[in-house]
C-alpha cells in the first residue's frame, strides 16, 4: 500500500505535492485545535458543576447550622410517645397540610427491649423542609427508611416516606 502511495506521489508535480503537504498539515492543525477546544469546554463544564455543588453544600451547611442552633439540648424521654414526637416534629417543620399519613407500629420484643416504629408520609415537600425534618427527628428516633419521589411537574417538590424507630424497655 505504501509503495502505491509513494508511486502516486512521485507522479505528482512539485506544486501538487506542496498542496498535499499543506492540506495534510492544515487538517492536523484543525484536528488539534478542535481537540483543544473540546477539552477546554469539558473543563469549563466540570468547573460549573463543581461550583454548583459547592453552592448546594454551602446552603445545606447554613441550614444545618440553623437547625443545630434551634435544636433542644436534651434527648427525648422514653415515656413520651414516639408517635407524638414525630407528629410534633413534622407539623413544626413541614406543616400539617403536607402530612399525608402517620402510622404507628410495634416492632419485635427481644432481650427486654421493644421497638416502636412510626411510618410518616409527606406530600409536596421541598428538600430544605425534608432536611429540616430529618434533623428534628434525629433526637427523637432513628430513621430506618427514607424514600423520595420527585413530582413530575415540579422537580423542586417531593413526596417522601420515612420510617423511624426507637428502642424502649419492654413492659
Please identify the structural class as seen in this structure: alpha+beta
CATH class wording of the largest domain:
Alpha Beta
Strand order of the largest sheet: 1-2-4-3
Spans of at least 5 consecutive residues whose pLDDT stays below 50 are 72-78
CATH topology of the largest domain: Alpha-Beta Plaits
Put simply, the count of helices is 4
Shape, per Cα inertia axes: rod-shaped
Largest sheet: 4 strands, antiparallel
Distance between the termini: 91 Å
Question: CATH superfamily of the largest domain, called what?
Answer: Ribosomal protein S6/Translation elongation factor EF1B
Beta content: 25-35%
Radius of gyration using CA atoms only: 32 Å
Structurally, the number of domains stands at 2
Mean pLDDT: 85
- SSE succession: HHHEEHEE
Number of strands: 4
CATH architectural group of the largest domain: 2-Layer Sandwich
Helix content: 40-55%
Put the structure in a nutshell.
The protein has 171 residues and is α+β, with helices and mostly antiparallel strands. It has 4 helices and 4 strands; from the N terminus they run αααββαββ. It has 2 domains: 2-68; 82-169, Ribosomal protein S6/Translation elongation factor EF1B (Alpha-Beta Plaits).
Amino acid at each position: 500500500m505504501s509503495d502505491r502511495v509513494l508511486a502516486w506521489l512521485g507522479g505528482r508535480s512539485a506544486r501538487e505535492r506542496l498542496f498535499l503537504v499543506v492540506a495534510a498539515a492544515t487538517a492536523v492543525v484543525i484536528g488539534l485545535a478542535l481537540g483543544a477546544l473540546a477539552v477546554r469546554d469539558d473543563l469549563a463544564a466540570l468547573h460549573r458543576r463543581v461550583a454548583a455543588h459547592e453552592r448546594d453544600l454551602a446552603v445545606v451547611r447554613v441550614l444545618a447550622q440553623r437547625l443545630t442552633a434551634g435544636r433542644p439540648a436534651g434527648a427525648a424521654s422514653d415515656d413520651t410517645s414516639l408517635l407524638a414526637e414525630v407528629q410534633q416534629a413534622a407539623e413544626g417543620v413541614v406543616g400539617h397540610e403536607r402530612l399525608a399519613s402517620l402510622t404507628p407500629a410495634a416492632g419485635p420484643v427481644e432481650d427486654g427491649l421493644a421497638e416502636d416504629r412510626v411510618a410518616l408520609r409527606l406530600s409536596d415537600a421541598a428538600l430544605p423542609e425534608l432536611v429540616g425534618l430529618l434533623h428534628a427527628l434525629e433526637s427523637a428516633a432513628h430513621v430506618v427508611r427514607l424514600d423520595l419521589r420527585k413530582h413530575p411537574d415540579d422537580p423542586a417538590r417531593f413526596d417522601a416516606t420515612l420510617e423511624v424507630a426507637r428502642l424502649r424497655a419492654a413492659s
